[in-house]
Amino acid sequence: MTVVRVKICGITREEDIHRAVKFGADALGFVYGYKESKRNIPSFESLKLLVSSVPPYVSSVVVTPASNPELSDVILGVKPTYIQIVNDEEEYGNVALVRKIRAKTGFDAIIQTVHIEENEDKRTSQEKIIEKCRALSHFSKAILLDSKATTDNDSMLLGGTGVAHDWHLSRKIRDALAPKPLILAGGLSKENIARAIKVVEPYAIDVSSGVERKGKSGVKDEGELKEFIRIAKSAD
Predict the structure, then answer these.
(1) Which end of the chain is more exposed for a tag (fewer CB within 10 A), N or C?
(2) Please, which residues have CB within 8 angstroms of residue 69's CB and are 6 or more apart in sequence?
(3) Residue positions annotated with a catalytic role
(4) What is the value of pTM for the model shown?
(5) Residue 144 belongs to what domain range?
(6) In this structure, what is the dihedral angle of CA atoms 215, 216, 217, 223, given to the nearest 10 degrees?
(7) SS3 assignment, position 69
């Protein structure tokens, strides 16, 4: 049995770093440069402090929009294990961005995020998404699939949506990209994670709102963390 890797995203507090690691998290995600997110780290120094608190053999992932002008500063100054780029313009512009980052910093540990509609069931749309994932996979260490959702003012949420998408489409993408790692995100919780892993068989899973205290974005619940990671690690 292959044990799925678990990333706990939207970390905002040092105590949640230690709790997540205690229960077996493989990676921790920190949102930066996205002011609309309730889980956004407010300053460069706060981000640096949190990332430096991640213990050895656990990956730190800074999740940031492609439009963030501080990308190079984050790579060189914060030194995360990975950068997860979220394309806030829904185009292929990330390819040029990755080339620029590599040339400037030598850093290539980049994860690309692709958003999927909750009911993306049209064949042409699915083929377009699969092709987009293929194109971006050549410029990344992994592809992360998240759900597409919008705020009340119709701006796109870049993560922490709490919304699941079509896992059967995720499985098609996973098969099309293999052996490139696929990370599954979007609306995952202790109630559905075993099913999601069974359908998609992802390399890793990513959860944020599904392990938070009710009504407190960015504050992880110890019991939810423990149970989610236990179920995910034991899923077959």
Answers:
(1) N
(2) none
(3) 9, 146
(4) 0.91
(5) 5-234
(6) -100
(7) coil
